[in-house]
């Protein structure tokens, strides 16, 4: 989060769902630590090297999305990169291994679910963590 905005991944509408946003990230590979995974995912998806990675929380999300049930464990990190510090508010980055984009979205829009932000409860968690002071950069 930076100045009332969150850097999020935007998923386009399909026949199964409308446009939605998620925290940037991906999966942890077998034998990989969560902090190594977040560094690898940012490099693979955005070609961005992270200068700082700090784990802040772990949460669990069990959900139904109409067509499927899911269960995920979400590791929340504070990350810092000169690339994000220099990213203009109106910039959109193409994700290299998906048909999604990354951009800054105003927190008020996310609160209004425009677009919906997943996993459920993540926005409240990152706002709480950001308000607890001292975090150096975007929280993911």
Shape: globular
The amount of helix comes to: 10-25%
- Oligomerization state of this entry? single chain
Number of discrete helical segments = 4
CATH architecture: Alpha-Beta Complex
Total beta-strand segments: 7
Tell me the series of helices and strands, N- to C-terminal. Answer: EEHEEHEEHEH
Counting helices, strands and paired strands, the structural category is alpha+beta
- The domain count comes to 1
User: Widest sheet: strand order?
Assistant: 5-6-1-2-7
Summed over residues and divided by their number, the pLDDT gives a mean of 87
CATH class: Alpha Beta
- CATH homologous superfamily, by name? Nucleoside Triphosphate Pyrophosphohydrolase
Report on the biggest sheet.
5 strands, mixed
Ranges where pLDDT stays below 50 over 5 or more residues in a row are none
């Amino acid at each position: 989060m930076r100045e009332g905005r969150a850097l999020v991944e935007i998923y386009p509408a399909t026949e199964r769902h409308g446009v939605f946003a998620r925290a940037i990230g991906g999966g942890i590979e077998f034998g990989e630590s969560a902090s190594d995974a977040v560094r690898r995912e940012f490099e693979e998806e955005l070609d961005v090297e992270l200068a700082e990675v700090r784990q802040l929380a772990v949460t669990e999300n069990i959900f139904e999305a109409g067509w499927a049930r899911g269960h995920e464990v979400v590791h929340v990190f504070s990350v810092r990169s000169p690339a994000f510090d220099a990213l203009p508010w109106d910039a959109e980055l193409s994700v290299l291994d998906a048909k999604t984009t990354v951009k800054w979205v105003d927190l008020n829009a996310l609160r209004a679910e425009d677009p919906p932000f997943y996993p459920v409860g993540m926005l409240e968690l990152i706002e709480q963590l950001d308000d607890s002071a001292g975090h150096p950069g975007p929280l993911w």
